[in-house]
């Protein structure tokens, strides 16, 4: 059975930028909802039980028709959010270092140019979805809870949830304000580790 991982920080640890109310609602209600529906979907298929969510998403096109959409939406939501909690930290912000920073600078010319392009794609994404930094330094978007793994792409280095449930209590409809605040909690050491592992 899938489960929601515990946060490695308190709900109020990001309070200057993301409130405890948002974190608790997002983690305990929204993420738990994805997990509950994913578990219900795979419960009737013993051969799928015990597989990692990544395996389900990679083989999405081969899953039984009656659960494929549920796994796409809720398996994707579970996978995306498991990463999202790791990509934030009360000690976050600033910018990366080492090979990751070098790769960003080589592709975008400056760290500010990178964050500007990432932010532009996040602000411009219509409806609900995610913005991702890929190992090749591409910045891409997906709709809803779609996973890049299901599209045959590499696991992301960094991702931002731009569903309204991620920010509405704090920022109302001002997505740009939420995105600007989020840069202050990005956990760059985790992103660097994922970049190193992707090579």
Structural account:
This protein has 199 residues and is mainly alpha-helical. It folds into two domains: 19-86, Fe,Mn superoxide dismutase (SOD) domain (Helix Hairpins); 98-198, Iron/manganese superoxide dismutase, C-terminal domain (minor pseudopilin epsh fold, 3-Layer(bab) Sandwich), CATH 3.55.40.20. It starts with 19 loop residues before the first helix and ends with a helix. It has a three-stranded antiparallel β-sheet with strand order 2-1-3, with helices on both faces. The radius of gyration is 17 Å and the shape is globular. It has helices spanning 20-42, 53-58, 65-86, 98-108, 111-124, 168-171, 175-182, 188-198, and strands at residues 129-133, 139-143, 158-161. The protein is built from eight helices and three strands, in the order αααααβββααα. The longest helix is centred in the N-terminal third of the chain and has 23 residues, at 20-42.
Which structural traits does this protein have?
three-stranded antiparallel beta sheet; minor pseudopilin epsh fold; 2 domains; Helix Hairpins; 8 helices; 199 residues; mainly alpha; globular
Please give the share of residues in helix. 40-55%
Query: Oligomeric state of the chains?
Result: single chain
- H/E element sequence: HHHHHEEEHHH
Largest sheet: spatial strand order = 2-1-3
Number of strands: 3
């Amino acid at each position: 059975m899938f489960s929601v991982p515990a946060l490695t920080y308190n709900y109020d640890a990001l309070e200057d930028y993301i409130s405890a109310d948002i974190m608790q609602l997002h983690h305990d209600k929204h993420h738990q909802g994805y997990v509950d529906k994913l578990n219900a979907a795979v419960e009737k298929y013993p051969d799928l039980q015990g597989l990692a969510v990544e395996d389900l998403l990679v083989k999405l096109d081969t899953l039984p028709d009656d659960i494929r959409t549920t796994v796409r939406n809720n398996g994707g939501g579970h996978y995306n959010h498991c990463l999202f909690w790791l990509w934030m930290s009360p000690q976050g912000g600033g910018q990366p270092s080492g090979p990751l920073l070098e790769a960003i600078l080589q592709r975008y010319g400056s760290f500010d140019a990178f964050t500007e392009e990432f932010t532009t794609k996040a602000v411009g994404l219509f409806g609900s979805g995610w913005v991702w930094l890929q190992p090749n330094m591409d910045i891409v978007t997906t709709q809803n809870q779609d996973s890049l793994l299901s599209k045959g792409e590499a696991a992301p280095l960094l991702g931002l949830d731009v569903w309204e449930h991620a920010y509405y209590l704090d920022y109302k409809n001002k997505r740009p304000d939420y995105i600007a605040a989020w840069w202050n909690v990005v956990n760059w050491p985790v992103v660097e580790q994922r970049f190193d592992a992707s090579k």
